[in-house]
Amino acid sequence: MPGDMKNPSERLYLMGIGGIAMGTLAGMLKDGGYQVTGSDTNLYPPMSTFLQQKAIAVLPGYDAENIRRTRPDTVIVGNVIRRENPEAREAEALGIPMISMPQALERFVLTRHKSLVVCGTHGKTTTTGLLGFVLESAGLDPSVFIGGLVKNWDRSYRLGNGLYMALEGDEYDTAFFDKSPKFLHYRPWAVILTSIEFDHADIYRDLDHIKDSFRRLNRLIPPDGLLVVNGDDPDCLEAAEECRAGVITYGRGSRCHWRLEQVVHGSGRARLLVKDPAGGSVVLESPLPGRHNALNTVAVLALCRELGVSEAAFQEGLRRFEGMRRRQDILYHDGSITIIDDFAHHPTAVRETVLAVREFFPHGRLLAVFEPRTNTSRRRFFQETYTEAFGGADWVAIKEPAGFHSIPPAERLDTQALVRGIAAQGIPVHLYRELDPVTPDLLARIQPGDTVLLMSNGSMDGIPRDLAEACRKVFGRKDRRSRAQGG
Hints:
Elements lengths: L10 E5 L4 H12 L3 E6 L6 H7 L3 E4 L3 H7 L3 E4 L8 H8 L4 E3 H8 L5 E6 L4 H14 L5 E8 L4 E4 L5 E5 L4 E3 L2 E4 L6 E6 L13 H14 L5 E5 L3 H7 L5 E6 L6 E9 L2 E7 L5 E6 L4 H16 L4 H10 L8 E5 L4 E5 L4 H14 L5 E5 L12 H5 L7 E5 L15 H9 L5 E4 L6 H7 L5 E5 L7 H24 L1
Parallel strand pairs: 1-2, 1-4, 2-3, 4-5, 6-9, 6-12, 7-9, 12-13, 13-14, 14-15, 19-23, 20-21, 20-23, 21-22
Antiparallel strand pairs: 7-8, 10-11, 15-16, 16-17, 18-19
């Protein structure tokens, strides 16, 4: 068993266990020998499947009886849980200690490692996955904690005995009893900061409020640590001024220490030309599409070189990295039709994802389906910005999420205005209202050569996997028949 996790006989209960971070922590703790149970209201793949495979019992719903029956030593509280939750009230009444997910991670895992925190509005999941996989590939035996599943591992974490732990640093709040960002609990020794934009309007007032969180994080880096920061982002550079440690910049700008000079896409891979701080050139072959992933790759390269990873070891890890589930995740591909599932929800992420998929699949039509599901995206904060986010698509659909019309009209994203704005750019566009059947309609629209990109930070009511399965039955059967006829 990796590491020396404390008191493995302790009974731990995770409220909100179905969230990606909480489910990941549950898996780590179970592997560490702890007795782990939890509760949640709405489980769906991949986390539901993962918890089942780990034989972690999940009690449906939130009920005070669950706490009385399991009698845990410690309750770990996810940030979806509110103070009035019956299980939280029962734990408090029984005197059972309650801690947050970041506190649990710090207590049970992080104390054994130097912490490498990847943060920013965009790109942190894939960047953390790549960092962790490269460190493993280089033989450094890291621990890793990510808000997404690494395809190579088919899980979102790794327990190792090495010096380093790579963590995805979330700027969202911690728990109902701790409204500070999660990443402030992660004892950062080194940080990668990819970007700063306004997001999470339910907890942040404005851009300055978000920037203050990143300033606080950078102040925690010790003088012997390191900050690797996007040198093209002025807000990132401003936040970096708070750092007492060494600062290394990366980006496209001429003043960046690590400079991305060229990205060329072809045959499902990207070729990156990078200038290092000494003026030398590094050529990378990457499986990750898009300009944003190219820059994230350079950030990981910069940090890994500081950690002593050789160029050859980095190249090998990058070459073998298969990416993350739900990040440009190909669910179906038959040589003609491709179905892709992606987590994009912020307008910048939507724009970059559409462009990245277009670059990797330049032939045929690109059909982009977007569900504005987050607390921020379903409101009017990005009404105009979303209009400009689909420029690389040949056809666009906006899908209203469940509960969309419960938001007051004055606050709610105007989906009809969004559709009109997209159409004004000459892009065919369709609006799926909250209860419209989506999968059959999409299936009827798909033609040979199409790539369908589905973007949501939730399950999108299972549409991506339903559509992939429908394509497998309809087009896969046709493809097999045509090959048989041709042979």
